[in-house]
Write a structure and sequence with these properties.
2 helices; 61 strands; mainly beta
């Protein structure tokens, strides 16, 4: 058996403080051999069954996971995919990915209840322990927490072990102290969700990750240890597996601690460098690093002296590259620790990286000689420094200079010619200047220097050529204004403006059509911010064309009125066009029936523009309207007319019977029945009028009186139900009981109902009547009502 303590940092993800990082760069075989495997165990026959992205390495330094690094296996993905992987923060209630992959029968049997499993990831291998026990550390986490505690979505995982002395297949993912298997439904806080209310279960081993900053899973376990008794030197099989339960959603994962798969060894070997100059505990710098090797053994095996032979191998030469290392090391009787030191020499010969391999030949509990290997490296990388800086494009720009150091031994010290002592400086020289940095490394205080020249550019003056001033008689004549810059640093930008508009364009030319004399300004700026400004005067010699319109007018509907325009200025003769009629005079007659806006276009002999003028003729008039005091009219009865007119002050009424009136609300009486037409003429303060005609129908007087109660009790008063009429020539009555049954009818004008039906008095109560009648003037009417019968 050959064991090695060679550093594996190069194979693991780079450390990311405060956040989980993962990698799928290593194969499952490399993950077991290089990451999971610790001391006292050899492994073989490694296989993995699952989607490739469900297994990888992780680094959880400075997270709340409890394990710094190791192997991660999930039911979805180990990659950093938002809303899917295990990477924090915990900002998603249903993180996960359904890979549509099969489950694992052993896990389906483990959770029981007929629940199917999905998206299984299965890592298995043979191992040989070299003591009587084997163990490794882990954390189980899941997005099923806490909503699906107590449900069938009890995502499953297990560590199945089989081999000599173990009955069948045993799951060693167990709660300490015999608390049963580690599952979602067996490790949680007190929870109430849609599946019920559940008391806390093994909550001392549960971490509530709600709003956690580094891990996505809603909850996970404390760091637990899976362990089993084994027989020294025998071969065992271990299956590490995890799967979704119930469906492929909401992922779960297991984190296996690096180098924790181990079996107890009789001697443990550690080493410590006096300085970690290269960020690694395995690399020695020539001339300034001492390595201390420490061997420890348990007190119960320390009664006798123990000598351990040491083989020294590697590319480095003893006595030249490093001091002498003993051929063996001895534990004195009763001692539990033994140590020795050796140094790396400075030989002033560049040899690159060299190795020192120490083999400690130790007998394991099985009686085998087991070399425990310590591999160290010696580095004599010569110091060099390079300055990287950006180019100054414009005078006055800051330039950042960064010293990049290779070789030697960090930490480095820096000294710039400016006196600054940081790796990076910022300078703003006024002229071309050289900057030198001297770097000193920390092992032998060796120094190296380098120089960087910052060139300050010098540009010719910025000059702007442009279109000369322009003079025209008429306005609105187009012109192209151009500007061209030379000198400066190039990459010019232009800005055009005038006294009327601050942003006319940003090109090297603009098209203008001025209405009046205008000064145009152009400013050019180069890419260093230098600018210059020029102006172009566009002069128009003709005065502006100005219109004076007739004042706005108020007229009655369709009255005629003259409107006009007076034009002054412009060039030469004036030309007029009225938009509403096409007339070409300076004034026109109009007679609108409603308020109208009139527009005239005026041009001059330039014919390059028009000026529009407007004026409004407002038509005003009252609105005549009226109603009557009632809807039924009889001859010889007075009728009041209610005036509803608006904006009027005088009124003329014509009642259709020869009568007239000028009151606001007059009254008129008609002698004879018939149809009459009422006319109202309303006049406002300006003499404008409006009229309206409405008909009314004057009827011959009629009247029907119906009592509401009678008492058919046989005395002399109110024994029957009858109607009293005036102006009615025929009548038809029907009386109904409460169920709508006709109990009395009569076509007689002077009908009488004695309160009986089919020879019997009707019960006391309320009865409905319907009476249709024709007046003497031939009008057909109908009335309905109720009568009370009381006996």
């Amino acid at each position: 058996m050959r064991q090695t303590l060679t550093l594996l940092l190069a194979l693991l993800p780079l450390i990311s403080f405060g956040q989980l990082t993962t990698s799928t760069a290593q194969s499952p075989n490399a993950l077991v051999q290089n990451v999971l495997l610790g001391s006292g165990v050899t492994v073989s026959n490694i296989s993995f069954n699952g989607v490739p992205v469900t297994i990888g390495s992780f680094d959880a330094s400075n997270t709340n996971l409890g394990i710094d690094e190791g192997i991660i296996m999930t039911t979805g993905t180990v990659q950093n995919v938002p809303g899917q992987g295990p990477h924090g923060p915990n900002n998603n209630n249903d993180a996960g990915r359904d890979n549509s992959a099969p489950g694992y029968p052993l896990l389906s049997s483990l959770i029981g209840g007929g629940t199917a499993t999905f998206d299984a990831a299965i890592l298995e291998f043979d191992f040989v322990p070299y003591s009587d026990s084997v163990q490794f550390n882990y954390v189980f986490g899941s997005e099923e927490y806490p909503e699906f505690v107590g449900s069938t979505f009890n995502d499953a995982f297990a560590f199945f072990i089989t081999g000599p002395g173990i009955a069948g297949l045993q799951n060693i993912a167990q709660i300490p102290g015999g608390g049963g298997p580690v599952t979602i439904n067996n490790v949680h806080l007190a929870e109430t969700n849609t599946f019920g209310t559940f008391p806390a279960s093994n909550s001392a081993y549960y971490v509530n990750n709600n709003n956690g900053a580094t891990i996505q899973y809603d909850g996970f376990t404390e760091v637990l240890t899976a362990e089993s008794a084994v027989q020294c030197g025998e071969t065992y099989h271990l299956i590490i597996c995890i799967a979704d339960a119930g469906d492929g959603l909401y992922d779960s994962g297991i984190f296996l601690e690096a180098n924790s798969l181990s079996s107890k060894t009789p001697v443990e070997i550690n080493y410590l460098l006096s300085q970690e100059l290269y960020g690694s505990p395995d690399i020695m710098g020539e001339g300034c690093v001492t390595t201390t090797i420490t061997l420890d053994r348990e007190p119960e095996v320390s009664a006798n002296a123990l000598t351990i032979p040491i083989n020294v191998l590697g590319t480095a030469t003893e006595g030249i590259d490093y001091s002498n290392i003993p051929n063996s090391i001895t534990f004195a009787a009763g001692a539990t620790q033994a140590q020795f030191d050796f140094d790396a020499f400075q030989d002033f010969v560049f040899e690159g990286q060299e190795t020192i391999i120490l083999e400690f030949l130790i007998m394991d509990p099985c009686g085998n000689i087991v070399p425990i290997v310590v591999e160290l490296f010696i580095v004599d990388d010569p110091l060099s420094v390079e300055i990287i800086g950006n180019v100054m494009l414009c005078p006055g720009e800051p330039v950042t200079l960064s010293a990049t150091t290779l070789g030697g031994a960090p930490p480095y010290t820096y000294l710039w010619s400016t006196g600054e002592t940081t790796p990076t400086i910022t300078v703003i020289p006024g002229v071309t200047t050289d900057y030198t940095v001297t770097v000193t490394e920390s092992c032998l205080n060796a120094t190296e220097s380098n120089t960087f020249q910052v060139v300050v550019p010098v540009f010719p003056p910025l000059i702007l050529n442009h279109t000369p001033d322009i003079t025209e008689i008429c306005p609105y004549i187009p012109a192209l204004l151009e500007a061209g810059a030379i000198g400066g640093s190039g990459n010019y930008t232009y800005q055009w403006s005038s006294s009327f508009n601050t942003n006319l364009g940003t090109g090297s030319s603009i098209n203008v059509v001025p209405s009046t004399t205008t000064t145009y300004t152009v400013t050019v700026t180069d890419n260093c911010g230098n600018s210059t400004t020029e102006t172009i005067l566009y002069t128009i010699t003709s005065p502006p064309l100005v219109l004076t319109m007739s004042p706005d007018l108020e007229i009655c509907p369709f009255d005629s009125v003259f409107i006009s325009v007076v034009a002054v200025g412009g060039y030469g003769e004036h030309y007029f066009v009225w938009t509403h009629s096409g007339e070409t005079t300076d004034g026109v007659w109009v007679a609108p029936g409603s308020t109208t806006l009139y527009e005239v276009s005026v041009s001059d002999e330039c014919q390059t523009f028009t000026v529009e003028g407007t004026m409004t003729v407002t038509v005003i008039a009252p609105t005549a309207d009226f109603t009557t005091s009632s809807t039924t009219f009889f001859n010889d009865f007075p009728i009041t007319f209610l005036n509803l007119s608006e904006d009027a002050v005088d009124y003329e009424w014509y009642f259709g019977d020869g009568n007239t009136d000028t009151f606001v609300h007059p009254t008129n009486t008609y002698d004879e029945p018939g149809m009459y037409f009422i006319t109202l003429i309303a006049t406002d303060e300006k003499g404008c009028t409006d009229s309206i005609v409405k008909p009314i129908n004057i009827e011959e007087e009629w009247y029907v009186y119906i009592p509401n109660t009678f008492t058919p009790d046989g005395d002399r008063n109110n024994n029957d139900f009858r109607a009293s009429t005036v102006g009615v020539r025929s009548l038809n009555v029907g009386i109904y009981n409460r169920w709508g049954e006709l109990i009395f009818t009569s076509p007689e004008l002077n009908f009488i109902w004695d309160g009986t039906y089919q020879g019997q008095y009707v019960p006391d109560g309320t009865y409905t009547y319907s009476i249709g009648f024709i007046t003497n003037s031939g009008r057909d009417k109908k009335i309905r009502g109720h009568v009370n019968v009381l006996r």
